[in-house]
Specification:
Elements: H1 16-19, E1 37-44, E2 55-59, E3 94-98, E4 104-109, E5 117-123, E6 131-136, H2 144-147, H3 151-154, E7 160-161, E8 166-168, E9 171-172
Parallel strand pairs: 1-8, 1-9
Antiparallel strand pairs: 1-4, 2-3, 2-5, 5-6, 7-8
């Protein structure tokens, strides 16, 4: 009788581009909303190379600060069962986009209310567990997390303002400029 060791998750994937993205997953803001902002960037590995097969999820409160969100990101066609995505009207506070061949990702959303950041989860090859971080749209002096970091580490959480209503937030998975990732305690059973 032979015993097989468990297979690490990074050796069976990634399948993120196949099963997890959904239509208009990066269109968090209702279509045509005047306050829409674009948050975008690149995911880089430890060698500084783009990661073309990562998946980025974003969560945030609505502009009024509410966190409940509206159901609707993963709507399905009642006839075929296929995911048809957002309705283009409701703000759900949730986005999910794959990186492209150049490691680029983008979401169009509304400014978060009550906080100065968008929460992000990164799924990528070689990761046994996804990573959590924040993209701060403004440097908030009183923020507890930002205040606990040295300036060079703090800078990895600050999105850079570009053109009007556009912010760039690159994610570095390893290396000297590695993005600050957050650890959450495991739930007890």
């Amino acid at each position: 009788m032979s015993t097989y060791a468990p297979t690490p998750s990074q050796t069976v994937g990634p399948f993120y581009g196949y099963a997890l993205p959904f239509p208009r997953g990066g269109e968090v803001a209702p279509a045509g909303h005047a306050d829409t902002i674009t948050l975008h960037g690149y995911v880089f590995d430890g060698a500084g190379q783009p990661v073309p097969d990562a998946l980025i999820e974003t969560w945030q409160p609505a502009p009024d600060g509410s966190r409940a969100g509206v159901p609707g990101s993963l709507r399905q066609d009642p006839v075929t069962g296929r995911v048809v995505g957002r309705d283009g009207v409701a703000f759900t506070g949730f986005g999910r986009v794959p990186t492209d061949a150049d490691g680029h990702w983008a979401v169009r959303t509304l400014p978060p209310g009550g906080v100065s950041y968008v929460s992000i989860a990164v799924f990528a090859r070689g990761l046994l567990h996804h990573l959590y971080t924040r993209a701060y749209l403004v440097d908030e002096p009183g923020d507890a997390l930002l205040g606990s970091l040295e300036p060079e580490r703090r800078a990895t959480l600050l999105a850079r303002g570009e053109a009007s209503h556009t912010y760039r937030f690159d994610i570095r998975l390893q290396g000297a400029q590695e993005t600050v990732f957050l650890e959450f305690p495991a739930e007890s059973s």
